[in-house]
Amino acid sequence: MASRRRMLLKVIILGDSGVGKTSLMNQYVNHKFSNQYKATIGADFLTKEVQFEDRLFTLQIWDTAGQERFQSLGVAFYRGADCCVLVYDVNVLKSFENLNHWREEFLIQASPSDPENFPFVVLGNKVDVDGGNSRVISKKKAKAWCASKGNIPYFETSAKEGFNVEAAFQCIAKNALKNEPEEEMYLPDTIDMGGGGRQQRSTGCEC
Amino acid sequence: MSCGVEEEKQWSCGKTATVNLQKVSSIVRDIGDPCLSQSPIKVVITVNRMLKPDKWQAMFDGEGKVFSFRKALKLIVLGGVDPSIRSEVWEFLLGCYALSTTAEYRRRLRTARREHYRDLIKQCQSMHSSVGTGSLAYVVGSKVMDVRTSCKNDQEKQTKKERSTSNDNNIVGKCCDRSITCTEAANVSQRESSDDWVDLVSLGADTDNASYDPFGQQNCSSPKYGRESDGSHYVTDSRIENGDKHSAQHKLRFEDDRMHSFHVNNNANLVIESNDQHPLATLHGMDYEIEFASPDEDEPEFLSSNPIYDAKMVDQLKISDVPQPAMINASISQGLPASEDRVSEWLWTLHRIVVDVVRTDSHLEFYEDTRNLARMSDILAVYAWVDPATGYCQGMSDLLSPFVVIFEDNADAFWCFEMLLRRMRENFQIEGPTRVMKQLRELWHILEVSEREMFAYLSKIGAESLHFAFRMLLVLFRRELSFNEALSMWEVCAPCFISHYCLLSS
């Protein structure tokens, strides 16, 4: 008799510094925006309970430092990720150009088992700035890039105004879930294989 | 007071300053309460022990030489520094002056360094007119173009060409761009040039180890690794050239080139004070003016005819550990023009600086004034210009902010910041935060010996990397503690910053 244990989904947010990674995470988890977020040093994470098809999941969202020089820490943080969110600022060309770098860096460092199909989601943030007049990357251009990388889902967001953030993270959670290998979907507390030959883990609580 | 199981987790630093360790301990609690239950660490700080103005003044002789810094240091370690004398004391703590210097000498040195800082501001201003004006270079959220792209492509081609001709000097010159697209050869060159500078500045107390090559040519590569590894360091200020382009006239002898250094051996009672005498400082000459090809500027008089400082001024600047070492990157001092690449890289860096400056300590009333944000931005911009191997990296603004608040003069703040970064810059370079990673490994060994229970617990949960402490060490608890608490923390740990890291000494 297998009981269902709440599953943990690990999500990593990557992108240049100042594109709004921390703000997106906080808007999604706490529904708050602040102008006073400091530059992230190392990494932080927040968790949020999400429901999907009558099941509860814990979304563990890792917010990372945007500066390239802290990437040596990446291995530790990227490991075990179920979905990777790539964020750029629609007003800063460089942050878009760097998406490729962040994607490749992730694939190298996290080395997922199936890199071709590993789920990414791209967010073009800060669409609210100057009423959209200062943006330098068009939606079309961003979508074209996403299409060229295996149809990565793309969202335009404003962490400041909460625009599209919920929808984006729902997609992120869904994709993270898809990535989870089938056999790990259900983690039984106890196993009774009935003479399966393999030695079983000790049963019961590990306390 | 105990940092143990009691509810009251406060580290009292006297009447005015109380370090609340709740934030720190809450982090630790997340890892596991039991670990702290039998902690033997007791921190007792009393207000009497704080370094007060009267006691500080009593430590100077008639000429203004400090004759009893050891006593002062003991008080600082035990109780911090009275805020009214903070700026003055911090300059000594950071090693800006040798203790043997007279008040008059220090006054002249200060004047000279302020002048020098003004020159640097001018240089930066010629590349971006906002620098030094009290306003920020960019409006955050504005459209920003990275002007580096074309330069970078050019550079790659250029570098490849140079590789084939093995023209090392040119590669160094071209390679101020810290972009990750630098070729392998270029990166090697960069590392070499920046290491030379790091090697010149090592810190510590062991006079025996302070071997000193009067001609300063070969000695530059050994101090960094050799001395740091055995925990003994010394302060020196030899300016050693990469090549032999500098004639003997650039090497001057300074009789009183003494640097104060000290060492705390995990015990405030074991403060060792010494004045290492380094009789010779190899001088760079004052040909440090940075020539660059600034596309839209026509200030030839500034670029090409920087006034030659008189020998006396040079003398003043070189005697103590003035910011010059940082100023003179090999690529600059070898007389090669700073390339357009370097300028465009710096301009992009300036953008990144502004992005972070506006979100550094933005809760402080002090930074509601944009001019103060601009001061922070200027200092970071100047630093990034003079030390391109480090440039700007996140976390540096957290370290700079206290100096901007404490010092009224930007040059003074810059100087102290630069002194601090001599110890910290290894965390902010392209290679990654190597110093912190090393410290985390050391911390792990310390835990193994001193906090067995915590060690066992962290081992069990697989937290050997101690990454949760990464930020604490990188920005010296600026994020875990409030602004004032962090300053007190810096003071009671000051000797650690100056000599060698000893986070857990109490």
TrEMBL record, chain A:
Keywords: Cell membrane, GTP-binding, Hydrolase, Lipoprotein, Membrane, Methylation, Nucleotide-binding, Prenylation, Protein transport, Transport. Residues 188-207 are annotated as: Disordered. Gene3D superfamilies: P-loop containing nucleotide triphosphate hydrolases. One of its GO terms (biological process) is protein transport. Pfam families: Ras (PF00071). It is found in: Cell membrane. Transmembrane segments: none annotated. It is a lipid-anchor. GO terms for molecular function: GTP binding; GTPase activity. It comes from the Eukaryota. GO terms for cellular component: plasma membrane; vacuolar membrane. Belongs to the small GTPase superfamily. Rab family. This is Ras-related protein Rab7. It comes from Lupinus albus.
From TrEMBL, chain B:
It holds the Pfam family RabGAP-TBC. Residues 80-497 form the Rab-GAP TBC domain. SMART domains: TBC. Residues 225-239 have a biased composition (Basic and acidic residues). It comes from the Eukaryota. Residues 211-239 are annotated as: Disordered. PROSITE patterns: TBC_RABGAP. GO terms for molecular function: GTPase activator activity. This is Putative Rab-GTPase-TBC domain-containing protein. It comes from Lupinus albus. The lineage of its organism: Eukaryota, Viridiplantae, Streptophyta, Embryophyta, Tracheophyta.
